[in-house]
Amino acid sequence: MSIKTSCSDNGVYPPFCELASSNDRVFAEFRRNPVYCGVVETVSYAAGRDYLERILLQSKAWSRQFSEFSKNDVVGNPLVFAYRYGLLKRKQCTFAPTTLRYIKVLADMKALFGVLDNMRIAEIGGGYGGQCAIVSRVFRPARYTIIDLEPCLRLARRYLEASGISDVTYVTIGELDEAGARPAYDLVISNYAFSELSRSVQDEFVGKVIAGASRGYFMCNFATHTWEGDQYSQHEMMELRRDARVFRESPPLSVIDREAKVALVVFGGEVIDGWVPEIGRA
Ligand SMILES: C[S@@+](CC[C@H](N)C(=O)[O-])C[C@H]1O[C@@H](n2cnc3c(N)ncnc32)[C@H](O)[C@@H]1O
């Protein structure tokens, strides 16, 4: 019997990813399949509106990229919604709400870490590659490595190739070299993934990926998804880095993330006006 490595490693979602990666008809619709919507394509219309407001509060200039970003929703047939914005709500954009979350994360990372060009980026639990695609539509990282379960990587590869995003490395944590031989990363991203892993897998990620990274952006659902009992707590994540900061308020957190008691843990990066950390330097 195989050992469960995370709450999404549940015997249903990985086989669905495998099927979606290999079957044309399933792939064409994977982003509205109930199994997939239970794990990755999870954001509601209302939460999407909240993310949109936060993107534009950070910088109205992000709206110039909206038509480029909307290419994310051409593949996998997600549910999309029209959102009105701007002065007197005269402008309109159409997005899958989850794509708005990926854009909001990009806007956060740009504010914290500046231009992401030439960075060696690792993403822990990258889903179908939606965050990778949004980052790659604006920046040219030196390398973008997605670390996920094997069947999920196959789906991410198919989605990103169909979306015209190349130069991505796909690996499982088991395939990454041990510490010492490990590649250094300039930025590690994990949205609702690291905090859902089992303790032993988290330890492997800390040793192989997180310890050597110079910056980090981790959306952590400590309150709702720490299913195993001894996974990394907020306190332990703070101990990984002396410059770690934890945010739980808005900005930067959205309403839905605050309601779910999600914490954003940041390693490195700029101090941003109005972002008040619960713990760590202001
Ligand atoms: C809740 S989803 C989040 C996906 C994506 N980060 C996002 O924001 O949409 C959790 C992710 O963790 C991945 N995952 C589960 N077990 C894993 C493991 N043992 N190693 C790496 N990734 C894993 C899942 O396949 C999925 O991509």
Label this structure with key terms.
single chain, 282 residues, alpha/beta, Rossmann fold, seven-stranded mixed β-sheet, two-stranded antiparallel ribbon, 12 helices, 9 strands, 37% helix, binds S-adenosylmethionine
Structural write-up:
There is one protein chain. It is built from 12 helices and 9 strands. It has 282 residues and is α/β, with parallel strands linked by helices. The protein has a single domain, classed as Rossmann fold (3-Layer(aba) Sandwich). It has a 7-stranded mixed sheet with strand order 5-4-3-6-7-9-8, sandwiched between helices. Strands 1-2 form a two-stranded antiparallel sheet. α1 (13-22) packs parallel to α8 (150-162), α4 packs parallel to α6 (97-113) and α6 crosses α7 (130-136). The protein starts with 12 loop residues before the first helix and ends in a 15-residue tail after the last strand. The structure holds S-adenosylmethionine (SAM). S-adenosylmethionine binds at residues 5-6, 8-9, 39-40, 125-127, 130-131, 147-149, 152, 173, 191-193, 196-197, 201.
